[in-house]
Amino acid sequence: MRASELSKKISNRLLHDIVVGTLEGGQHISAQQVADRYGVSRTPVREALISLEEKDVLIRLENRGYFVADKLPPAIKENLDSVDPSELDEYQLLANDWLTNEIPEEVTEQFLKQKYGWTKAKVGELLIRASREGWAERKEGYGWRFLPVAKTPEAFDEIYRFRMAIEPAAMLEPSFELDHKVLEEQRRIQQGMLDMDMDAVNGEALLESGALFHEELIKLSGNPFFLMALQRVNRMRRLMEYRAEVNHQRLIEQCTEHLEILTLLESGNTVDASYRMRQHLSGALKRKSPLAWSWATDTSTPRKTTP
């Protein structure tokens, strides 16, 4: 994907998040924040930000950066690209083929070039991203090896048990400090999820908003290693979860529990919030785990996910 095509995709995803309210008017947007969110470099992100500024979706303030416009142009929804933001790109295609055993555990770059018709540069870019996100590694000498870290049911369970260990503990860190602006923003997003028409929102956006909730809360620990660990496992579990169908009842339960955790934090009941977070993750594991192995080896077209 050329830089201009990638920046257009990033622009579409940002525009979608703004239109559905995940990003609200006046909110600051930095190139690094977007690059981390979508797993891309800052160069195409900067191109996307400039494009949205030209469409009056973003406002650039000198020495302060980009902000979402308080009022969007009336016809902005018509500017959304016809491609669904959750449609498979090359990276998701590679991940999907690994999940469904369409490619072997060990491959060469030449093998991937021939199978998919990609350029050498594209293959290298995708493998490096897969390595960064924890599901591929370069072999000693020659070739690449795909890892089963987020492919097996056991790995899926281990990811959730790991989260159950670190997320409640992060709230009990001596450096944990409430930020009411963060809590207010997450309450707005979670309540908005409950109020919106789910059929109008793609599954990838739902997954991202759920991951964002947990990452924003773990940031409050003041310990960057908690956040780094959570971001990595969130990227790994995405390989499995984007294939699951959107389950509205589970989504309602999830958002409701998120709001309960926020209420406890807002009232200063950090210990209770920590315990509720563990319950929340334990319940999510029980609800999602049966799905993990029922469709992980399904070779049908990937489906949309619940966060």
Verbal overview:
This protein is mainly alpha-helical and 307 residues long. The chain has three domains: 3-79, Arc Repressor Mutant, subunit A (Orthogonal Bundle), CATH 1.10.10.10; 90-146, Winged helix-like DNA-binding domain superfamily/Winged helix DNA-binding domain (Arc Repressor Mutant, subunit A); 153-295, Up-down Bundle (Four Helix Bundle (Hemerythrin (Met), subunit A)), CATH 1.20.120.530. The chain is 60% helix and 6% strand. The protein has twelve helices and six strands. It has helices spanning 3-20, 31-38, 42-54, 90-99, 109-116, 120-132, 153-170, 180-195, 203-219, 224-241, 248-266, 270-295, and strands at residues 28-29, 58-61, 65-68, 106-107, 136-138, 144-146. A three-stranded antiparallel sheet has the order 1-3-2. Strands 4-6-5 form a three-stranded antiparallel sheet. A hairpin with a 5-residue loop joins strand 5 and strand 6. The chain is globular, with a radius of gyration of 20 Å. The relative contact order is 0.12. The model is unreliable at 81-88 and 290-307 (pLDDT under 50).
